[in-house]
């Protein structure tokens, strides 16, 4: 893959869109899970009485929130994957194919040039 | 009988390893298993690499003894995978075999950066390795039921420990140097299936004792815990109210390292490259999240089940740190289902699973560090990026041997210490040395060689020095060095809270102070490649551009 082909794509509108979408998604997810995780850690460290309250039977708030951490992890992973499939994958596939085509074209040009060169050398002789 | 079942595991995995050897030809095969694993296969292997004996026996034990606080480990270990999910596709697209491929892609002084990455990879792996191997040594004497001062078939507990460490070491060296990534991946897959099956069986049996009523099980655990009414509340083990604010900060520090460390663990990162493309990499992390999540939910049942059915006294009588809780639970529920024979069978099965777990995890670690030594240090630093493939693979096989022997030596040396803190330290080092460098390489335009090097070494040294100056080593109630020695100045046992921000700071300051200009073209190239996968190392296209 030619370096300038890739760097050239960097200024492409579609790539900018892809990048913006990814960053927004990544920041949302990181913010959501880190915020929620550290809230939970802080509650465990500093709000012991609240965490000890009974929720369902012998299950207290601490255990319930802990299991909710599992649920939220599964949900966020699912959310990310769905969004990536719909909004990121088509764009990145398009750009990737284009980069591949450009490379193929360049390769063809190079071969034609080499061939022409060879013929010129041959006719000159 | 445990030994018999374990022998079956060994025979099967040896067969797979020999098959893998026949099918391993070049670096793509040795380092990345030919990039031919499916998302699901690699997901199982990721879970296999990740779920160590520390999490299987250790967490079940902590929950059994300290109730709710053990669960916090599980949560940190799982939530961390979301960060991995966000980074995995970018890393898969940008890199070839190792983290260093990503870090060195866009910077000027590549050999220096590669060396730093290799140093960090090997250090983190060796710390983690030693912890696992010492754990294996302790486990075997417990499994054979040898108490200090007694012998078992003429073997003293000390000798049993050393023999176990040697056997585990020999096996892991063989798996890695002979089977490479293909062999190791199949070992992980087999182990993950065994571990999930064993845990599931045990969980179902335990829950059935309580009519599948969680609340009832918790009540029973609470009643037998020795401090009813408190057992299920936070603060039984970590950040006890008596420890004040320092204890609480220490606890937060541990949580930070757990959640940020996973995405920088060398044996996890190395596994990103074993699939054909970024989509498969994403699928494999999703599989891993499902498996790891299910596993840790089940350890909850194991831990509280052990507290309820075995009881705290019986557990601490066998092992004060609770590592045998899951095994004792296996015997107890086995007995209740099928009498003493049933108990022995289930105990043997779970014991064999625990050994398989240790063996698979240490193999993954040895593979990751030998890959880094051969590919990054030998291939790109010593041979200027132009080694012969056959030469590089030979070096990788040899490095596996060297690192394996070194780890065995260290493990034998420290076999009697309580090295549980090494696992937490390995996570803290991965979070400090590797994660900042990875994130800034991918997202910060101005980042340069000096920044990477400062970030990696700053994070690595920062976390090691902080632990050396903490109560872990001296001056605390559970310190490794005896009481009169006291040179601790850093109050926290877990360095993450300080060392991770410190590493980011080093990386940023190093970048800004250096006169080296970042190459904006290379950065654009990296971001296009990372996000679209154009030019990524794939299954069919060999050596297209990239990691030079």
UniProtKB/TrEMBL annotation, chain B:
One of its Pfam families is: SSF
| UniProt keyword Hydrolase present | no
* InterPro entries membership: Na/Glc_symporter_sf, Na/solute_symporter, Sodium:Solute_Symporter
Q: Which GO terms describe its biological process?
A: plasma membrane acetate transport
Localization, UniProt: Cell membrane
Keywords (A to Z) from UniProt: Cell membrane, Membrane, Symport, Transmembrane, Transmembrane helix, Transport
Q: Which GO terms describe its molecular function?
A: acetate transmembrane transporter activity; symporter activity
Q: Does the keyword Oxidoreductase apply?
A: no
Q: Which residues form a coiled coil?
A: none
| Family membership | Belongs to the sodium:solute symporter (SSF) (TC 2.A.21) family.
| Name of this chain's protein | Cation acetate symporter
Give the species. Answer: Herbidospora galbida
Instruction: State the taxonomy lineage.
Output: Bacteria, Bacillati, Actinomycetota, Actinomycetes, Streptosporangiales
